[in-house]
Amino acid sequence: MFAELIRTDDAVLVSYVAALLRDRGIQPTILDWNVSQLHGAVGWQPQRILVDDDDWAAARLFLIEAGLGAWISERHHD
C-alpha cells in the first residue's frame, strides 16, 4: 500500500523531491501529473507524491532534514 507524502501544484518541487527520494533509494510514485500539466498553473489538480507505507517515515524524516518539512502531507493512503 502507498501513503501520500506531498501534494502540490509546483512541478519543480515534485521533480526535486522525487530526485531526492530516488537518491536515497526510496521509489516515489507521482500521481495526477498528466491532469496537472493539462491545467497548467491554475492549480486545479495538484500532483501527489506517494511512497510505500514501509518507506513513509524515513522519507518524511529525510525531507524534514532537507528543509522540506513544510510540504509534507498528513499521512493519507491511496
Give a verbal description of the structure:
- The chain is an alpha+beta fold.
- It has helices spanning 11-23, 33-39, 53-65, and strands at 2-8, 29-31, 47-52, 72-77.
- The chain is 42% helix and 28% strand.
- It is globular, with a radius of gyration of 12 Å.
- It starts with a strand and ends with a strand.
- 22% of the residues are buried.
- The model has no long low-confidence stretch (mean pLDDT 87).
One letter per element, helices H and strands E, the order comes to EHEHEHE
Percent range for β-strand residues: 25-35%
Uncertain spans, ≥5 residues at pLDDT below 50?
Answer: none
User: What topology, given as strand order, has the largest sheet?
Assistant: 2-3-1-4
Structural class: alpha+beta
H/I helix tally? 3
What is the alpha-carbon Rg in Å?
A: 12 Å
Global morphology: globular
Distance between the termini: 7 Å
The whole-number mean of residue pLDDT values reads 87
Largest sheet: 4 strands, antiparallel
Could you give the count of β-strands? Answer: 4
Helix fraction bin:
40-55%
